[in-house]
Amino acid sequence: MPEQSPLDLAEGDLFGPHNLPYGVFSTADEPERRRVGVRIGGHVLDAGAAALALGSPYAALLAQPTLNPLLAAGRTAWRDVRRALTAWVTSPAHRADIEPLLHPVTAVTLHLPYDVADYVDFYASEHHATNVGKIFRPDGDALTPNWKHLPIGYHGRAGTVVVSGTDVVRPSGQRKAPADPAPVFGPSVKLDIEAEVGFIVGTPSTHGTPVPLADFREHVFGLFLLNDWSARDIQAWEYVPLGPFLGKSFATSVSAWVTPLEALDAAHVAPPARDFPLLPYLDDSNEEEPGGYDIRIEVKINGEVVSSPPFSTMYWTAAQQLTQMTANGASLRTGDLFGSGTVSGPEVNQRGSLLELTWNGRDPIELATGKRTFLEDGDEVTMTAWAPGPHGTRVGLGEVTGRITPAT
């Protein structure tokens, strides 16, 4: 009986030809040679080698050590490459050329797939923002007056964005509890997670020219899972009046796979109803397609599910975030990354941070490894996600994982 081809996938595979996320990998025999890969089932296709073997005009674009040249090539190239890849992995006529270029995912090393230009993180979940407001302002308004009028964000550190699987060193910094007479310096004792979805910019924009909502797909290549690690005690002491700094900048973990926006066409949903009329530049009520995405996230600590945040509840969409980023004329660059902000739903088991899940340490969560309020050294956090695909399929967004190691 002939051996089954890696291209013959089981029904319901999250990484079927309807998905085809991009990454960058190397092999054990050539550890220094990084290559653009496309995931199909449990294998990675060497995209550059496939393009060369099949005479694709995009061979040079795919034979690169990062995704940045493909990102910069623009939407027409993104569409054409995706169509070619779909044909290569589905047509029997191409199997003899494609199968030798497939590598088991378990046998390769996955790398950060792009060079990050800038990193911006938002605060777009009403449920998360409301919970945080109730925790820190129990006697005041949970949401700040500006929250429902514009997507709030801050600039992070591009240089500390790391690929899934990278250990996260517990950060140190100043911290001061309300009752403490003076601040102290030392390792964070309130290390937290933030379950997010990230977006990567491909086509740059012109400095001084804002990007309208309708041009979102002209600039954004795809999306991925993101964990914006947070040291809540450091953050609480430093963030007034200028916002997050060292409490956020020590590490941001991203998935090794980038899912093209086109793969999520079936996952579009309308965002929640807006409570206030939006200014024209953010008003998406007449856009051709709804700006939300029906993405189901699952968060595990040491292998145990602690939360299932629904991305469909996000008040502000990725298109609105991109428009807000450029509203003052700031330009986009290839490799710009922006995070959605913590994804939280209305239920306790849908909260995307330990700050919310434990109500700032008041209500520990039970794990087989013991009770947790915040992360302990040795804890491993894993986030996975999927979204509806075409014809009843599911699109996998891979995973983002990281293990906490002691402060240096």
From the structure above, extract its key features.
single chain; 408 residues; alpha+beta; eight-stranded mixed β-sheet; five-stranded antiparallel β-sheet; 26 strands; 19% helix
Overview of this protein structure:
With 408 residues, this protein is α+β, with helices and mostly antiparallel strands. It has 11 helices and 26 strands. The protein has helices spanning 47-53, 59-62, 68-73, 75-90, 95-98, 126-136, 216-219, 232-238, 246-249, 318-326, 354-357, and strands at residues 22-27, 30-40, 43-46, 102-104, 108-111, 119-122, 153-155, 161-163, 168-169, 172-175, 184-187, 191-192, 195-201, 220-227, 230-231, 252-254, 259-260, 268-269, 292-293, 296-301, 304-307, 337-339, 365-367, 370-372, 380-388, 394-405. The strands form 7 sheets. Strands 6, 7, 8, 13, 14, 16, 17 and 22 form an 8-stranded mixed β-sheet that branches. A 5-stranded antiparallel β-sheet has the order 4-3-2-1-5. Strands 9-26-25-20-21 form a 5-stranded mixed β-sheet, with no helix packed on it. β1 (22-27) and β2 form a beta hairpin. It is globular and about 70 Å long. The mean pLDDT is 97.
What separation lies between the terminal Cα atoms?
A: 56 Å
Q: Helical residue percent?
A: 10-25%
Strand content: 25-35%
Q: Report the biggest beta sheet as strand number plus sense, adding barrel if it closes.
A: 8 strands, mixed
**From the alpha-carbon coordinates, what is the Rg to the nearest angstrom?**
21 Å
Number of strands: 26
The averaged pLDDT comes out at: 97
Shape: globular
Give the count of helical stretches: 11
Category from helices, strands and their pairing: alpha+beta
